[in-house]
Amino acid sequence: MAHINLLPWREERRQELKKDFLVTSGLVLLLAVGLVLLGDRIVNGQIENQKARNQYLVDNIKILDEQVAEIRELEKKRNQLLDRMRVIQELQGNRPIIVRVLDQLVRTVPDGVFYTNLQTNDKTISIRGVAESNNRVSSLMRRLAASDWLANPNLDAVRAAPEFGDQANTFNLTVQIQAPESEKKSGEG
Predict the structure, then answer these.
(1) Distance CA 7, CA 27 (A)
(2) Within 13 Å, how many C-alpha atoms sit on residue 54's CB side?
(3) How far is CA 34 from CA 23, 29, 45, 120, in A?
(4) Does residue 131 contact residue 140 with C-beta atoms inside 8 Å?
């Protein structure tokens, strides 16, 4: 017996459904590919945007680092200037004191005593000199102790110096610089 399809419309229907399925599958595939490409573009755009933002931050950080280095350099120069100003102010403030101390050194020298060397170190004056006798050295020590600007005379050494006379001596002594109370108060004000 021969196969006779009594219902050819089913085969046509099946072909039509198959064709619709393939078209729908193709459209869905195209839509999926389109969505993937669109998503890829969006993500790449966001990545590029973030890279641009990161580069902007890196560039501005470099600028800020340069500004910070410049500020540090300016602060260093400022501190150096302040140190210089402080030294100058100390020198200006000490100038009258130095004059007064030298004046006191001259006033306290008794007859028969000669200074050969004066050296200062901070607030200490080292004096080397020649005296006609030990009594002259003692007189110098008393006068230094009685001075308003000098304090704590300390005799380090006394040696005979026959090249300057029979009783002549060379001496080494140190004395401290001290401002009188009236000068300290006026210097503070």
Answers:
(1) 31
(2) 6
(3) 16, 8, 16, 93
(4) yes
Of 183, 176, 84, the closest CA to residue 122 belongs to 176
Q: Give the Cα separation of 125 and 176 in Å (integer).
A: 6
Phi, psi of 178 (to 5 degrees): -145, 130
Q: Residue 154: which residues within 8 A CB-CB, separation 6 or more? A: 173, 174, 175
Terminal CA-to-CA distance of the chain, rounded, Å?
Answer: 138
**CB burial string 123-154: b at 16+ within 10 A, e below:** eebebebbbbeeebbebbbebbeebebbeebe
Per residue in 113-134, pLDDT (tens digit) is 888 998 888 788 899 999 988 8
* CATH class held by domain 50-184: alpha beta
> What element of type H or E holds 59?
helix 8-108
Q: What is the pLDDT of residues 85-115, one digit of tens each?
A: 998 887 777 677 778 888 888 888 888 888 8
Burial of residue 164, with CB atoms counted within 10 A of its CB: 0-12 exposed, 13-18 middle, 19 or more buried: middle
* Interaxial angle between packed helices 134-146 and 8-108, expressed in degrees from 0 to 180 and rounded to the nearest 10: 130
